[in-house]
Amino acid sequence: MTMALITYKEAVRQAMQEEMRRDENVFLLGEDVGVYGGAFGVSLGMLEEFGEERVRDTPISEGVIAGAAAGAAVTGLRPIAEIMFSDFITIAMDSLVNQAAKMRYMFGGKAKVPMVLRMPGGSGTGAAAQHSQSLEAWLVHVPGLKVVMPSTPYDVKGLLKTAIRDDNPVVFIETKTVYNKKGEVPEEDYAIPFGVADIKRVGKDVTVFATGVMVHRSLEAAEILAKEGIDVEVIDPRTLVPFDKETLVKSVIKTGKLIIVHEACKRGGFGGEVAAEVMESEAFDYLDAPIKRVAGKNIPIPYCMELEKSAVPQVDDIVNAVREIV
Amino acid sequence: MTLNKETLLNWYKKMLHTRFFESQVDAFFAKGMIHGTTHLSIGQEAFAIGSTAALHADDLITSTHRGHGECIGKDADLNRMMAELMGKSNGYCKGKGGSMHIADLEKGNLGANGVVGGGFAIAVGAALTQQMKKTGKVVLCFFGDGASNEGSFHEALNLASIWKLPVVFMCTNNHYGMSMSVSRSTAVANIADRAASYEMPGITVDGNDPIKVYEATLAAVERARSGEGPSIVEGITYRWLGHSKSDANRYRTKEEIEAWKDRCPIKAFEQYLIKNNIISQQESDEITAGAKDDIVRAVEFAQQGSYPGIETLEEDVYA
After folding, report:
1. Could you say which of 3.40.50.360, 3.40.50.970, 3.30.2130.30, 3.30.470.20 is the CATH number of the domain covering B5-58+123-302?
2. What ipTM was reported for this prediction?
3. Where is the Transketolase-like pyrimidine-binding domain (chain A) (predicted)?
4. CB–CB of A240/A147 below 8 Å?
5. Chain B environment of A143 (Cβ under 8 Å)
6. Model confidence over A80-115: pLDDT tens digits?
7. Which residues of chain A neighbour B132 with C-beta distances below 8 Å?
């Protein structure tokens, strides 16, 4: 397999381009996705290739962006809708939660809603409380949605292809602080199935389960800890719904210790769900220490960069948590 | 515009079906044979039937929580409708949707909706499909006067207008959003006045006259089909019964309700048909009896159906 070194952002763009070339029913809509190229430049150049029909600038109307995507999906298209910041999904929640997610079930299995709602999530850009949230736990809670949270260029490309080909509404949360991070990506067509976690680092002493940007911080922490003789296993679920419980349970059985790391507020965060899944599994008997959660503080994201850093887990927080548990 | 006898009688029958279907639902609800909640459109039949009559068989609709008439207008099977309301597996949604979620995708009915204003964006998206795939089909998006105060109304109508989408926004103005009258809730006199904000035509017609409703809808549908974009068609009508079962009618007078009952759209249409020598009183009586029989059969079908098995509980969450 020939590999190319590209950024996360380029990987997202390539996935969209390749799927749009493959299937004429796939199109992109969202605020400023056309000539502007998207607020983060993700769709730059796509207008030139596909034209205004298939790379559609919309007014600032998140409710109808998500709802029209659902309506287009249920009638035979495969829309990719971009929400400029994941925070603005609040405005699209009826379309997403009450409509798109429910249609198939409440219509007795007749409808298919093949849509992807892409959105950058997370803090770290100094953009304060309304442009920095990690709201995945809300979405995980809604039956009918699939929730994807890729952390690397390889994962984001392969998972976005699967998302576009999936016949369900998929919420695709991009990690905005790694948009410009490079990684190796195959030049050939590939797709990553949903519900398969990736062991980003094999270790034997402690399992660190991390999502989004926390995968990168956990890997950095693991390198620091390796020098102290602590061997950390880092697991990235990649998709939260469906959730690969098996890989995690196996890892915890091996290491006997679990630390869950996410950027979202600890209270009501996905980490609680992960911990409960492990407690209900056969891995419970193998735990040598209480499960630990390293997560965002239960506060809005502040503006001042130093405060912002303190609001979400940093590498040191993960290192310290591991030292405490082993 | 010539409407032949067969067409007019088909409308008459559908209006009667709607009336008798809902009267039966009302009776079953009172007996506890239908549960949950149900929103009846008795008194509003002319708008649902006259408007859907302007569609081709493969055109689409989105409907509302008070949408039985629109289902019937779009040629839904009464048997499967009744079965769905009774929660049976032979219902439209296998007993998982109920009154507020009847959908019949094969016939272009993209579903009723339990959320006020929930259908606007879906209709716009469905219309986008028709435009992008050049199908020539049109979407009718039904909504009530109350829904026009939802933000989704604004987002959807603006988008439909700038993209010239083949969708017609059909406002059933029955004077009340639950208890709040249009005059108390809404800054304009007619919902169709709001069309001006979106550079689209808006027309208000007598929603109790199926022919006027049909003509106005047909003009808007033809405009949409020819690529000229959306319109609002508003029908002024009245909901005879309560908003739902909990309604004690504290917000309106008996006199007001009675005055609208005197303007019964079905009675008026019957008189029109007889006066214009389209049918005789005897024919009308026969059609009425036939429509009642159809509901009896729908009830039999529903009662013969079984409740969905527990094994279906977790089916159909995902495709």
Report:
1. 3.40.50.970
2. 0.95
3. 6-181
4. yes
5. 317
6. 999 999 999 999 999 999 999 999 999 999 999 999
7. 27, 53, 72, 77
